[in-house]
């Protein structure tokens, strides 16, 4: 092999959150790529009603489960103590809060979509008790009045001021189609630290799909294959499991139908939420295939599973989503005994692809949702998995 045989690999960039690497490679878009969403909605399908609640009403709805704060949603609770305290100070100063967005389902239950951090903070302060409650710290205007106090330490007039605070809430009607609703969420998701795509899907989804994805990413097999990615603070672990479920349930033909990752994953979430579409037996089969894929990925690639690993480098790069979906789906079809005897040949073939095949590198690096690139990386990965036969 000569130097001329080797392509200059694209620069690998890791996603960051709160100035810390997430362990996931950032996906990029080609400048000339067509937008993933190119479908104008009928304005009559968008139904958003504006309502007004007192904070007492909102907190009571949270307590009786008619308003959901997206359980196990870690991203929504990462504010530092001073940030939380100054939000409470704003309420005490009667400074109007920005509008909230809720999504209502057909049973009348609502989920917080935009404003989750603010409402979680207020709920923790007022109803959190010793476990999640906190004392105010770092106030700007009321440091001589309520600094260091918990909610139960506040004088009654201050408590009433919090309870009586009115919030403006835009409630998205359940008759709004899911894809339209998802696009609305993406458009309004601008305040604070914006939610990523999987966090939005989590807010929109029901408990069944959440439980399935959490179960998939809580397995020892997943943690071993991804070097401890389970419980990811930006829910990238859930997105990877969802991508596996999407291609396992619908295949590349299903992807070609939607021609974009967002609608495919949104559709898959809906399928997992509906036991009539994916029953418990099918879920068990999905879980079994996922565990098998994780065991096989660890067996073949070791610490480099689902990461770019060109012949020119032994560095362990961040996990690449496109590699995850293609190799996990591919390896789920093989027995460990078969792969164990061929793993060196498979690794060599895979590393060669990531070194010499620029079309393959493009397919796992930029505009990864492009149908042609999705099909190419699946086809090429399937051939690489046959190495040594």
TrEMBL record:
Disordered: annotated segments: 1-37
Residue ranges of domain GmrSD restriction endonucleases N-terminal in the record: 69-202
Domain of life: Bacteria
Pfam families to which the protein is assigned, alphabetical: GmrSD_N
Protein's recorded name: GmrSD restriction endonucleases N-terminal domain-containing protein
């Amino acid at each position: 092999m000569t130097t001329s045989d080797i392509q200059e690999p694209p620069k690998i960039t890791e996603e960051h959150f709160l100035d810390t690497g997430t362990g996931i490679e950032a996906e990029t878009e080609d400048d000339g790529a067509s937008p993933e969403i190119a479908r104008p909605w009928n304005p009559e399908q968008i139904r958003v009603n504006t309502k007004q609640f007192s904070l007492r009403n909102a907190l009571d709805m949270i307590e009786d489960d008619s308003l959901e704060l997206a359980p196990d949603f870690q991203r929504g609770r990462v504010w530092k103590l001073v940030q939380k305290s100054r939000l409470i100070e704003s309420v005490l100063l009667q400074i109007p809060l920005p509008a909230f967005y809720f999504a209502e389902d057909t049973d009348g239950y609502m989920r917080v979509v935009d404003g989750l951090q603010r409402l979680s903070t207020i709920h923790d302060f007022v109803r959190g008790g010793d476990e999640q409650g906190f004392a105010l710290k770092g106030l700007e205007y009321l440091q001589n009045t309520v600094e260091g106090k918990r909610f139960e330490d506040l004088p009654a007039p201050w408590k009433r001021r919090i309870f009586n605070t009115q919030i403006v809430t835009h409630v998205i009607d359940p008759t709004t189609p899911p894809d339209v609703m998802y696009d609305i969420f993406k458009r309004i998701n601008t305040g604070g630290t914006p939610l990523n795509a999987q966090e939005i899907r989590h807010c929109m989804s029901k408990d069944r799909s959440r439980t399935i994805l959490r179960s998939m990413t809580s397995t020892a097999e997943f943690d071993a294959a991804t070097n401890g990615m389970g419980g990811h603070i930006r829910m990238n672990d859930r997105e990877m499991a969802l991508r596996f479920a999407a291609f396992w349930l619908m295949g590349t033909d299903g992807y070609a139908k939607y021609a974009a990752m967002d609608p495919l994953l949104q559709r898959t979430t809906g399928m997992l939420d509906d036991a009539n579409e994916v029953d418990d037996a099918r879920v068990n089969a999905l879980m079994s295939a996922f565990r098998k894929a994780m065991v096989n990925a660890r067996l073949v690639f070791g610490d480099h599973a689902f990461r770019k690993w060109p012949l020119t480098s032994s560095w362990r790069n961040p996990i690449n989503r496109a590699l995850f979906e293609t190799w996990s789906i591919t390896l789920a079809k093989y027995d460990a005994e078969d792969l164990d005897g061929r793993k060196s040949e498979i690794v060599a073939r895979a590393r060669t692809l990531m070194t010499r095949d620029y079309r393959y590198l493009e397919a796992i690096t930029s505009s990864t949702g492009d149908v042609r690139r999705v099909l190419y990386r699946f086809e090429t990965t399937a051939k690489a998995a046959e190495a040594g036969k």
